[in-house]
From TrEMBL:
Annotated transmembrane regions: none
Required cofactor(s): pyridoxal 5'-phosphate
Protein name: threonine-phosphate decarboxylase
Species per Swiss-Prot/TrEMBL record: Xenorhabdus kozodoii
PANTHER family: HISTIDINOL-PHOSPHATE AMINOTRANSFERASE-RELATED (PTHR42885), THREONINE-PHOSPHATE DECARBOXYLASE (PTHR42885:SF1)
Any Pfam family matching the protein: Aminotran_1_2
PROSITE patterns for this protein: AA_TRANSFER_CLASS_1 (PS00105)
GO molecular function, one term: transaminase activity
InterPro entries in the cross-refs: Aminotransferase_I/II_large (IPR004839), CobD (IPR005860), NHTrfase_class1_PyrdxlP-BS (IPR004838), PyrdxlP-dep_Trfase (IPR015424), PyrdxlP-dep_Trfase_major (IPR015421), PyrdxlP-dep_Trfase_small (IPR015422)
Phylogenetic lineage: Bacteria, Pseudomonadati, Pseudomonadota, Gammaproteobacteria, Enterobacterales
């Protein structure tokens, strides 16, 4: 993957192809189209004087709010400038000599490991296996020597959620073998009633769980995420190692209140259930596409028609091509679930593309 190849690069794409950025509809970034909660905007508007003061370097209130939401000790929590900062932070702390990555997967795991010279062993998730890991991964771990494993639940870019029993077996295996298991739950808030693995923290020392607040609460411009682990000594060391004030004052204050946005959370789940089903059923009607059943707020598919990305860009629609993900090629794509009219516009454009050949 070259450079920082992520979704949401509206300005860069617009400049490269000579298009007005304000006319592009962005399906490449998995951000909640409901926008930030109204209370978030009001809080920032009413807290402008916060720019004149340093935020609490320990972020005590933010850590307490996160710990309260997950019923864990605040010593188990470290907040960060998005989950990405914490990917790098936990990697620097662990200093693994050998790490296993499931492919395709989020690029920053690999980049963080490369920064410290870790030897990376790729474990390919294949189309034949539905791009899902299973107990064969444990067989592989028993034959190789690794210090840590990264896995995303749901995975990015496939949007697939691994089997719960498999995940339990993986947690137990890594705990027995002393392998650090970093589980990225950045999209799990989009799955109602799924608490993820945080309830297991008290019984583990090798489990590190990443969460993002950016996607669900539509605050990519603020950047906010957190890492939780039963290894409280490790969390303390990560706090001691990182640069001070990595979270701005607005993000810290917003993070303290987001867990109480119950109406917003419910509205998001209601929107997603409706619009994800619409996109899934509509995309599945195209014989040119192979679409995998989604569990998060985006869909992953294979397209037989060449250069769908560039074709849809002519319709002012920006989708995410996956050719830079290890293990995928230019025929794989990811699209975010957006508002009703935007999703309808995407389907109408694809109908025109496939009908006209």
């Amino acid at each position: 993957m070259r450079g920082h190849e992520h979704g949401g690069n509206i300005i860069g794409i617009a400049e490269q192809y000579g298009l007005p950025a304000n006319e592009l509809i962005d399906f490449s970034a998995n951000i909640n189209p409901l926008g930030a909660p109204a209370r978030v905007k009001a809080l920032i508007k009413n807290s402008l004087s916060a720019i004149e003061q340093y935020p609490d370097v320990e972020y005590r209130h933010l850590h307490q709010a996160i710990a309260k939401a997950h019923q864990c000790d605040d010593a188990s929590v470290i907040a960060g400038n998005g989950a990405t900062e914490l990917i790098y932070a936990v990697t620097r702390y662990l200093k693994p000599k050998r790490a296993l990555l499931l492919t395709p997967g989020f690029a920053e795991y690999r980049r963080a490991l490369q920064h410290i010279g870790t030897k990376i062993i790729d474990y390919p998730l294949t189309k034949a296996a539905g791009f899902q890991p299973d107990l064969r991964l444990l067989d592989t771990l028993s034959t190789i020597q690794v210090d840590c494993v990264f896995i995303a639940t749901p995975n990015n870019p496939t949007g697939l959620m691994p089997d719960a029993q498999f995940m339990q077996s993986l947690v137990e295996y890594c705990e027995r073998q002393g392998i650090a298991l970093i589980v990225d739950e950045s999209f799990i808030d989009f799955l109602p009633d799924n608490r993820g693995l945080i309830p297991q923290l008290a019984a583990t020392k090798q489990l590190y769980i990443l969460r993002s607040m950016t996607k669900f609460f539509a605050i990519p411009g603020l950047r906010l995420g957190y890492l939780v682990s039963g290894n409280t000594a490790g969390i303390t060391e990560i706090k001691n190692q990182r640069e001070p004030w990595s979270i701005n004052a607005f993000a810290a204050r917003v993070g303290e209140m987001l867990f109480d946005e119950h109406d917003y959370i419910a509205a998001t789940h209601q929107w997603l259930a409706s619009q994800r089903h619409y996109l899934w059923t509509q995309l599945s009607t195209f014989p040119e596409l192979t679409v995998w059943p989604p569990s998060a707020n985006f869909l992953f598919f294979h397209c037989d028609k060449p250069d769908l990305w560039r074709t849809l860009l002519k319709h002012r629609l920006l989708i995410r091509h996956c050719k830079h993900y290890v293990g995928l090629d230019e025929c794989y794509y990811r699209i975010a679930v957006r508002s009703e009219w935007e999703n309808q516009r995407l389907i109408a454009a694809m109908q025109q593309v496939f009908t006209c050949g």
